User: Fold this.
Amino acid sequence: MITIKKSYVLCLCIALIGILASCGSRKHTTDTKAARAADAMAKLRSKPLYRFINNWTGVRYKLGGLDKSGIDCSGFAFLLQKDIYGKTLPRRSKDQADAVKSKNYNSLKEGDLIFFSFGGREVDHVGVYLNGDFFVHASTTRGVIIDDLTLPVYQKAIVKTGTLN
Assistant:
């Protein structure tokens, strides 16, 4: 009986040590992509922009969509520019790129537009710059999301950055 109790206590102690050790070895880093995206949102100067992005985050992608049931990248940029900055953009991303004044990537400011070409030479995607190398866009696979511009997939595809005249 005593041997069984000692074995039980020993097993319990080993399990407890294992649990405590695993908790202590977990890295507590704030440098995750999600934490950096949240930081970019927290640093937005425009509170209406912050609210706009929060209201649209997670809305699914829908080609030609222009409401909460689904939206595409150019529709998202179109509505954001209209609702937040009172500026009118064309509806298609290629036409939007033609309507902006080019700006150096390193000079981007909150609300500036970033144009991409994933399928060749022509602009086929648009996003809105936030800060700290983050932007918001309507991703075809993830819907409206805040993303990291330093990712190679985006760096390779940027064809124009600018501000609406």
Q: What stands out?
A: The chain has six helices and eight strands. Residues 9-29 have pLDDT under 50 and may be disordered.
